[in-house]
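> forwarded from #structure-qc
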């Protein structure tokens, strides 16, 4: 499926978040690079005006990591965070390091790889191998 036609990407675009104030994190970059055909949700790290727009749409709750807040949109299929994982890059650095794919800022695969390795979650093992293979090619 073409990235721009993916239902989650269409939902993200409908929010009209300022491109300079958010980045897609989590497994979204794997979708953008064609390493995964689908993901169950998109994790978005937002700052400033993008975070304010999210707050205008729903009340924030504690992020699952216990680090910062998140806003759940579209029945949780878009999760907007005010920061990402503890001991990681802050929103400004993540956004500055983003790569633009089809007009959307995504975290680098190296950053995703680093988080997934650090987390040590069983569910991330396949993603780690997919990213390793991709990074070896490029």
């Amino acid at each position: 499926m073409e990235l721009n036609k993916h239902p989650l990407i269409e939902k993200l675009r409908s929010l009209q978040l300022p491109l300079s104030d958010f980045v897609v994190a989590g497994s979204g970059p794997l979708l953008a690079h064609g390493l995964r055909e689908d993901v169950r949700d998109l994790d978005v790290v937002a700052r400033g005006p993008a975070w304010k727009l999210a707050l205008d749409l729903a009340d924030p709750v504690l992020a699952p990591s216990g680090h910062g807040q998140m806003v759940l949109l579209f029945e949780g299929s878009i999760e907007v965070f005010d920061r990402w994982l503890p001991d990681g890059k802050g929103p400004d650095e993540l956004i500055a390091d983003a790569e633009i794919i089809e007009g959307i800022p995504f975290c680098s695969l190296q950053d995703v790889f680093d988080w997934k390795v650090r987390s040590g979650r069983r569910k991330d093992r396949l993603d780690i191998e997919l990213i390793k293979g991709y990074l070896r090619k490029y």
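QC bot note: Strands lie at 22-25, 42-46, 61-62, 69-73, 78-81, 99-101, 104-106. The chain has a mean pLDDT of 94.
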